[in-house]
Amino acid sequence: MPENLELDAVPGVPDFSGWSCPLPLADYPNIVMGHGGGGRLGNELVEHLFLPAFRNAALENLGDAAVLDLGAGRIAMSTDSFVVQPLFFPGGSIGALAVNGTVNDLAVSGAVPKFLTAGFILEEGFPLSQLAAIVQEMASSAAAAGVQIVTGDTKVVERGHGDGCYINTAGVGVLREGISVGPHRAQPGDAILVSGTLGDHGMAIMSVREGLEFESQIRSDCAALNGLIANVLDVCGQAVHAMRDPTRGGLASTLNEIAQASDVGMMIDEPSLPVRPEVQSACELLGFDPVYVANEGKVVFFVAPEAAGDVLAILRAHPLGRDAARIGTVTAEHKRMLVARTAMGANRVISIQIGEQLPRIC
Amino acid sequence: MPENLELDAVPGVPDFSGWSCPLPLADYPNIVMGHGGGGRLGNELVEHLFLPAFRNAALENLGDAAVLDLGAGRIAMSTDSFVVQPLFFPGGSIGALAVNGTVNDLAVSGAVPKFLTAGFILEEGFPLSQLAAIVQEMASSAAAAGVQIVTGDTKVVERGHGDGCYINTAGVGVLREGISVGPHRAQPGDAILVSGTLGDHGMAIMSVREGLEFESQIRSDCAALNGLIANVLDVCGQAVHAMRDPTRGGLASTLNEIAQASDVGMMIDEPSLPVRPEVQSACELLGFDPVYVANEGKVVFFVAPEAAGDVLAILRAHPLGRDAARIGTVTAEHKRMLVARTAMGANRVISIQIGEQLPRIC
Prior knowledge:
Two copies of one chain form a homodimer.
Chain A: H1 40-54, H2 57-60, E1 66-69, E2 74-82, E3 88-89, E4 92-93, H3 94-107, E5 111-123, H4 128-145, E6 148-157, E7 165-175, E8 191-194, H5 200-210, H6 226-236, E9 240-244, H7 250-262, E10 265-269, H8 277-286, E11 300-303, H9 308-316, E12 325-331, E13 338-341, E14 347-349
Helix pairs in contact in A: 1-4, 3-4, 6-9
């Protein structure tokens, strides 16, 4: 049994005890191998759990694929698997992450996210009440983001070959007309803006895992960014050259990757980086640098300098962008490198990390 | 370490010893947690393994989502996760299954499959040589099916929380004009055709697992069906009311599901079911009924009776349809049930199985 099943003492983690299973799922309070077969048990999961939660016309057809009308020829397509532990944490859950992660990947590509798929790999013995809670989180996150979950798949693996629940989502969105963003389009002179505080998600996960307590609880920033991004693109679309959500590897990976893709340098002003005091404390305690810590509800913009003020104002007017800040500039110098000006006035190179600083945070 | 890593004595399973790892992947012959992080190791997997194998313009952009031009408004979208054990088996592999499975789900929905995503959940310690072999199988299967793998994701879980390699694929395809198939469109009088022999995939997997040997080796039928289906739809598109690939749960699940979705009955003639002698022998030995055993390269058609002969002829002219057969008729009687006329002239109801007869066969 995964360790996370004993998480009820952690604030922010839901209480499953009140969940009552609709018949006939009640015959099996936990996942059995048969829930992954092509038989009645699998169909009951679809009928009594997935369909009621995700209900929409495309899904109800229960075909082998969802049939969708996108109305336009150019689409974006993205996928992510989610293996986060614990499955529920302050500010989010694997279900919320699975929806928001793919929504955000589409949104930063300049697309309006429309439709998601959902693939579950469940471990034998996983409580159906937890699956139901995860599915509800996915349904409410999808509704909040304005996307539909239109098709899905469930596999079950034997006890000891999974970790409760892994989820893959893939998504498609319609590319906005007249918008041309991409990781290779950042230009020297572009302002680098971030939509809010850094490191909240990664440190929320680590705090739960390590049992840390701070004066104020660290909550994940897990959120769908398509609304925030739409506000920016509606007004300043031509000025936005690139966007990326700094998830695994944090801000440092994002800036290094864009620097390489665009063949430019990046200079950031370290004191300008927005970091919550409790996140800063947790980072110092655990030996992490916030620039490497994952975010799940933030976006970095690379925008023409003359539009930087307007974009910042639009970001700050949105609930998800209140702490937005200008943190640096794209340069023609030190190509393919990220350099930070420290509070002491020194420059330091922030390279991409070799591997995993925080395993399984999404 | 998953048990399947010791499979080299099994015929049909590739020999990994000759695989040489391109630098700098060679520093890590096995998957480490860092391959799933947002850092350099993950980027090296993309650069040295996934990109060379799957190379295409959309993937090379390395954006958060692939940007695609479908040229038409109506698309189909599908997803499947693959957890098959062993990872390599006579006639196929998890890589071939992952591509063909999603290609087939799109094709039976009346779409021309175009683009796939690939999400990997790898277990710490999984040999890179095996991952490379799987990726090559995916690349060659995609090329054979005429689809592109345009975006992907890799997560790594700790040893003991996976089983070597799990893969999710999602796909989109363009719906063919003038074709209107769906699980709810089968009509009384429709002929039920199957494109070839039943049970090959499931019994190939079981034979490897159980160490069975027969006079002729049982090979999986794993194949992409979009070419075969296109041949039928090009000529007889109006006559085809529904299609489905009988994977998990086999023919019995497929026919029961279509009977329920279309509110019709199904009558099949048991002696007409095409089953290879060695598959029949394996089923008898292991106590399986071929109608419940999974296929990965077969499709069931529900077609207007006047077109049945033409469709059969088209199927038999294709290498994947040589053993195609008419196996039954859709009826107005015994709605939502599948009835088989046995060789003795008796009728038996074949219900949907409750759960998993053959776990983890795809």
